[in-house]
Each structure stands twice: as structure tokens, then as C-alpha cells.
Amino acid sequence: MEWTKKERYKKIDDVSSAYMTELRKKVDEGPYRQTFHIQPKTGLLNDPNGFSYYNGQYHLFYQWFPLGPVHGVKYWYHMVSNNLVDWEDKGIALSPDTKYDSHGVFSGTGFVKDDQLHLFYTGNTRTENWKRIPYQCHAVMGKDNNIKKSQKPLIIDSPEGYTDNFRDPKIIEQNGYYYCIIGAETSNHEGAIVYYVSDDLEKWTYQQAIELKGNITSENQGFMWECPDYFELDNHGVLLFSPQGMTEKGDKYQNIYQSGYLLGNPLDFTKGVFHVTEDFTELDRGFDFYAPQTMTDPNGRQLLVGWLGLPGVDCVTDEFGWAHCLTILREISLKNGKIYQKPVPELALLRGKKNTVEIELENEVVIVNQFSARTYELQASFTNITGQYVGLSFRMGDKEVTNFYYDRVEKKLVFDRGQSGETSTAEFGTLRKCDFSEEELQIQLFMDESSVEIFVNDGLEVFTSRLYSQVDQNQIQFYAKGHAIVTATQWEIG
Ligand code: FRU
């Protein structure tokens, strides 16, 4: 079918239940459905939203267009968990049903205050002439998980000097005041983050754009910064956002859009100046990662979840009526001026049958026949490394192979999905690399039906990607050009 504007702006109530049943069947019967990732039951999922801990549970929402694998009029869909692993489906949380969000309940965040979960989001609207007017809106969820939208938007349109690309509010509390940061595009088409102040979460006053000073290159910042987030770790400020329009530079910024962070001194919102100490660093080195958001949980952990997908590109599963999923949950920390990301330890709950091998590699390739699972967690440590490269192949068989290795000559980690099976984004290349020069290589890899997340050396680097391989391509092998000792464990999942 052709996704005309009319079709994209149909709401779920505008289609018959037979349409939804048919679509659901197509999704369920198609390949590549995930086993332990949050995925849409039909249609398209994009950004995680409203990630919070409230009333004794984790709440996670996501952007959803129910009717097909395209960016149509967005809803918020609600998932709840006690352990960040098992997610209960709570259905639609916010629908595009008011004049302030008629063309989409766009992204936003959660904020707990006075025993309520406050949800802040962008109401996307279009006039008859298709002029966009963004509203920053508010809703409140109580302990019964019922959500009530506020009658009036909090912020109408964008301030002078900014285009209608103005969205994705996030609330930060500092010294008794609330600050709302918003992703923006200036009239000169530069990415920016602006903020408002409030003392009651209701009346908001425009302040300014966050002023960036210090170690930051002003060129190559892109035209629009989406999904801003700000938090502090070990007395440093972290400004996280997803810039659109950066040009690629060596190994960097190879995906259609980026997401990453600036590190700096703690941001004083009464002044609005962010002194940057570390320039923009991509959070993820893989092919499919965007629009992450974080929250602090009751144990003081800073948790992160991202969209395991990207805007503006097709998805292999489009033909089966759905697209994209969320990442597994990560815990982030700061070490040596860099964000480290580790899968949350709760993911060990997924572990099933276990196999361990130890191999001494000497200029050879060793297939591990014991590792035969389709979906799994794999931990592998490469020690005593000498020579040119060490690595592994997975999702391998007579037709396909995916490679991840440490090139010690180039001093890089390399992820190669050139022969990984189906793809819809080959135009963006099939290799991803990043600098790496550690003595040892530790890998923690989560392989779901159609995605892989590879955490390297305790979260120093992460490569996140969709992989659409055939069902019988499940071999794993380790190799070294040179020498290495490999200890590896595979836990079946699912
Ligand atoms: C990021 C984004 C957000 C927006 C949402 C709409 O992927 O473009 O900026 O709020 O998606 O679905």
C-alpha cells in the first residue's frame, strides 16, 4: 500500500478491527520478531519516552504509529517492569486526541513529583496549510496508571529565532527550580538546546539557549538537536542529545543521524553556560542507535535506553508490517572523561543453558560447536594477545557471517555486517569502527533474533545493530592472526 499523508494521519480508531487483526497476523507470521527486546506489536516504534521509576516500578513508554511501518501520527505506548527485563504491556498511554497534539504525541520524558508521574511531551500539530505548530504539553499519571492530560499546553510554539523543529522536553530540578530543556533548530539552521524555568511545573518562562563554551568545535554541529537530556555523574555535567546533519569524519558519524554527549562542568541553570571539557562523543559505534534517554533509579543508578533504530531509513521488516525496537537497558557511569555503558545486571535473569570453552589461538580459526543457540548472551575474554588481530564471527553458516574484531595494527575495533543477511541501509556502509588500543578484549554480546548489542571492555565501547540473518546461520568462531587465549561462555536466551 502507498503511505499517503491521509493514510499516515489515520488514527487507530479510524481503521476497522479487521485491519488490525490482519496486520497483527502479518507481523506474527513474519520473520525477525525479537524475543527479549521491546518491540511494537504492529506498526512503527521509535524513541523511548517517559522513562521513570514510579510507584515501585519502572515505566517506559515509546513512540508508536500503530497502523504500519512508517512515521505517521504518533502515540505513546506504555510498558511497566519490576526488573528491567520482563515488561508488562499496558497499552496506549497517550493518543493524539486534542487540538494541541492532533498530529502526534511526540517525544518527552517523565518526572516524579508529589506521588505522581508527570509526563512532558511535544504536541505536534499542523494547520490546514500544513504549517507546524509545536506545543509542549503535560499529563499526569497516578498510582492506578491512569493518565490525565492537562487542558492547556505549557509552552506554545517556539521562541523567536527558532524554527518549528522544537521538541522533546526534559525536566531537570536544580536548587528548588524546575528547568525544561528542549531540542531546537535555530532560524540559521543550527542545532541548539533551549530552556525554560518554572517553580511549579505549570508556568514556564523562557530563558535562553544553553551556551556552550570551552572544548567544542562549532562547525559540524548539525541543523537540529533532538531529544536532549542532562544529568550529572561524579560532579560532571553530561549533555546528551541526538544531532541531525553532522557530516561524517573518519570513522565517526557514519549513520544517517547521530547521538552522543558533551561532558563539562556541572551546568548552572541560573547562568545557562555549559563549560565543555570533552567534545561530542558518540554513545554507540554501531549501525542502529538513536534518541536515548536516561533516568536515575532508586539505587542511584543512571539508566539509559535507546531506540534500536534511526529516523529516515527503511527497516527490513517493513514488508511484515512493523519496524524497530528498543535497546536493552544500560547502566552508565563516568570513567576517565568518558561514559561507560554496561547492560544492567538484571539481564542475567534471561540466562538459560550455559556452555563455556577455553581456547588457545595461534594463527587459527576455531569453530565452537557447543555454541549453537540462536538467541543468547555471550561473554568472551581475549587475553595474552599478540599479533595483528583477534576476534569472532557469529551468525555464521554457509551463506552469512558477521564479524567483530580488534585490529591491533590499525588500533581499532571493527564491526562488519557486510555479509550479515538482509539489509535496507547498505548505502550507509557495512563497516563500523572506533579507536581502541587496550591490552585485552572483553566482550559481552546480546544476540536477539534480529539485533546484536556488543559491550566492550566493561562498557568502554558499544556497538548496537539490527542483523537480519537466516535461521540456520548460528555458528560462532574465534580467530587470531597472532596469539590469544579466549575464555567464552554462551547462555541461551529464550
Ligand atoms: C526523534 C524524533 C523526536 C520526535 C519524535 C517523533 O526520533 O524525531 O524529535 O519527538 O521522533 O516521533
Radius of gyration: 22 Å
Helix content: under 10%
The major β-sheet equals: 9 strands, antiparallel
CATH superfamily of the largest domain: Glycosyl hydrolase domain, family 43
At the third CATH level, what is the topology name of the largest domain? Tachylectin-2, Chain A
In total, the number of domains comes to: 2
**Terminal residue distance:** 34 Å
The top level CATH class name of the largest domain? Mainly Beta
Spans where pLDDT lies below 50 across 5 or more residues:
none
List keywords for this structure.
single chain, about 500 residues, mainly beta, Tachylectin-2, Chain A, Jelly Rolls, 2 domains, 9-stranded antiparallel beta sheet, 5-stranded mixed beta sheet, about 55% strand, globular, binds beta-D-fructofuranose
In short:
The chain has 494 residues and is mainly beta.
How are the SSEs ordered, and which strands pair?
Layout (H helix, E strand, L loop, with lengths): L4 H4 L8 H13 L13 E12 L2 E9 L9 E7 L6 E7 L10 E9 L2 E11 L5 E10 L5 E3 L5 E2 L5 E13 L2 E10 L4 E8 L6 E5 L1 E4 L9 E10 L2 E9 L15 E5 L8 E10 L7 E7 L5 E6 L14 E2 L6 E6 L2 E6 L7 E17 L8 E21 L4 E7 L4 E8 L11 E5 L5 E8 L2 E6 L4 E6 L8 E19 L1
Parallel strand pairs: 1-21, 14-18
Antiparallel strand pairs: 1-2, 2-3, 3-4, 5-6, 6-7, 7-8, 7-9, 10-11, 11-12, 12-13, 15-16, 16-17, 17-18, 19-20, 20-22, 22-23, 24-32, 25-26, 25-29, 25-32, 26-27, 27-28, 29-30, 30-31
The chain binds beta-D-fructofuranose.
